[in-house]
Amino acid sequence: MNQAAPHIYFVTGKLAEPAVRSIVASTAEQFGFEYSIGVLPITVAALMTPKWLLRHIQVPSHATQVVLPGHLQHELESIKQILGANVACGPRDILDLPMFFGEKSNLKKNYGAHSIEIIAEINHANRLSLEQTRQEAKRLVREGADIIDLGCTPGHFWMSVGDVVKCLVEENIRVSIDSFDSREVSSACSAGAELVLSVNSTNRNAAIDWGTPVVVIPDIPNDEKSFSESIDFLAQRGIPFRLDPILEPLGLGFTTSIQRYAKCRQDYPEAEMMMGIGNITELTDVDSAGINVLLLGICQELQIQSVLTTQVINWARSSVRECELARRLVHYSVTNRVPPKHVEPALVVLRDAKINEYAAEVLTKLAASIRDKNIRIYNSEGEIHALSANVHVCSEDPFVAMEQLLASPVGDSINVEHAFYLGFEMAKAMTANTLGKQYTQDQPLDWGFLTRKEPHNRLRRPKKKKP
Description:
Number of helices: 15
Strand order of the largest sheet: 5-6-7-8-9-10-11-12
Radius of gyration: 29 Å
């Protein structure tokens, strides 16, 4: 016996009713549910308060779910206590309704697993105080680092490296030491460092006494002979190691170095490997997120178990968080043999995956139906639109749009506080138009994992002073 289709009751206001009816109808056909729409006696749904909603809503007895306007999300739990558990808040923009149902019907099971370890370097750690190093290490761990790599400065012996390692280990922070100075490495290993970066023919003899796993590198990037000799030397002496053929910058051998990683995996199919990705993220004039995803995708396919990343230059300042998200994305992609698309929205930072905008003629019709003096802001076709009763102004330039608004019939009602609010919203709208992002009034722009929450504050018009 086929299970009856769910019946969803959508709640809206009078102004949005035509758009809601059109979009709900097509969405219901796409996702196979029955529906009814409750148009409550309020012009704008966004002005509903939970108290007002509960006084006016009448849920049909046959409804299996209620979908409320998205702005009520922060009050949803208190509303559920009255209406029951089968209540949800839809998207703030009705145009996102198909995506809302699509996401709910295509949840990624077991998403989040990963197999790549993140080693985050604190560059020139010897120049920091113990407390500075401790705080930086804890921050990197919070962002997703598994091991904190203490980067030393060649030619400057770090006398207190053992104390720093000991302090971090006591904080339950895993530590690696990045130095070719055998004295620094020995001190760090004695204090609890669990990995040494790096070893080649110049210092491999000293590795015998450290009792610590090491990262093996060639003497120079394309020197396969020295690389294999160091590997054999360590293997014969039972010293655990990870292999790093060295990733070279774009323009200086990047493609050849990727081929070396593939050959290394072929030659040593069981060996642990590491890729130092900072030579690309730090030395390429581009935001690091996309590069990190691509490089970790290569690592996942080649079963490279760890990456070394840095956050020195400003465009790579969030590399650890990017790698933390990227390793989950590429693991899901490779494991399930699907493209890494529409899986991890937090990594889409600069632009948005999809933009929903009303056409200019739709906004013109909407403006003709507005009866109150509240000002709505929209983006459409590269312009900023401001709508109110008998008012519809638009321009690519927020200053021009604001001048038009001040000269309009609602201009006299715009006080200083309201002007600041409108300027803030129009600046967001211009940024969205510039970059290709979704703009929704009173909502933060979506910067992926960098999105900053904006408290929703409804502006109240000041009361007129009595004479």
